[in-house]
Design a protein that fits this description.
The protein is α/β, with parallel strands linked by helices. 46% of the residues lie in helices and 15% in strands. The protein has helices at 34-44, 57-65, 101-110, 125-141, 163-174, 178-185, 187-201, 218-250; strands spanning 4-5, 22-23, 26-31, 49-54, 71-73, 77-81, 88-92, 113-117, 148-151. Helix 5 packs across helix 6 (178-185). The model is unreliable at 10-16, 78-91 and 239-251 (pLDDT under 50).
């Protein structure tokens, strides 16, 4: 899907110039077998952001070896029956693998970010315990979250938090500074968007093809062709006059 301009959204806020908002599309592939990633990844290239949620360490290694992804999603929220009061409740499971420094190094070299979600920290006590365990491991192995992305993962509106609330939340639960916490959803998030742009608009991340000559409209093309015809006619008449003059002088 193509990005949607915020001016076309009835509930969006759009300013002029730099303040214009673009809504980007994203797909998250939950992969448990190698054949799934091989089959789904080519079709996923039409999305602006591509994330993979690996179900095992083997699938993590396979995802890191692939060239077409931007994010490794490390949240594992599972919907369970919530009874008659609500349709579903969400519980966050512990990671099905142990993230190692070599995984982080490979991801950093390729510009891929690991994604954590703060929604589980405010959902319920069981989700909080699993999310804290996963977040602590990821932040420790990544050196304070150097290539870690933080998103909401909210399942309903009550789980959303403001910027300063998220900073305080991560500082309190994960023992990182506010500056490091802010980088998770600002600087690092910008790096993900840059990586996605380079992946989608370049060849092997090195060569970009651009049409520097604007394509002429049908009217402009007709005008250009008529101008060329007039130039050819004028050049021919000068040549004929020159022949006549030379003929006269020879007499």
């Amino acid at each position: 899907p193509r990005p949607t301009r915020s001016s076309s959204l009835s509930h969006g806020h759009s300013g002029g110039g730099r303040n214009r908002v673009h809504v980007l599309s994203r797909v998250t592939l939950e992969v448990h077998e190698a054949s799934q990633l091989t089959a789904w990844l080519p079709a996923a290239q039409k999305f602006d952001l591509i994330a993979v949620r690996p179900g095992s360490e083997k699938m993590l290694q396979l995802a890191l070896a692939s060239d077409g992804i931007d994010i490794i999603a490390l949240d594992h929220a599972t919907a369970v029956d919530g009874g008659s009061n609500s349709k579903h409740q969400y519980m966050t499971k512990s990671l099905p693998f142990r993230l190692r420094r070599q995984h982080v190094h490979v991801a950093r070299e390729k510009g891929v970010c690991f994604e954590l979600r703060y929604g589980a920290l405010v959902r319920n006590s069981s989700s909080r315990r699993a999310a804290l365990s996963a977040a602590s491991d990821v932040l420790r192995v990544s050196g304070g979250g150097r290539n870690v992305l933080l998103s909401s993962g909210a399942k309903h509106a009550m789980e959303f938090r403001g910027v300063y609330d998220v900073e305080n939340l991560m500082a309190a639960f994960c023992s990182i500074s506010r500056n490091d916490s802010r980088a998770l959803f600002s600087q690092n998030a910008g790096g993900v968007l840059q990586h996605a742009y380079i992946r989608g608009s370049t060849f092997k991340g090195a060569v970009i093809f651009e049409n520097l000559v604007p394509k002429l409209s049908a009217d402009d093309q007709d005008l250009a062709e008529s101008s060329e015809d007039d130039a050819d006619d004028g050049h021919g008449s000068d040549h004929d006059d020159g022949d006549v003059v030379m003929s006269d002088s020879s007499r």
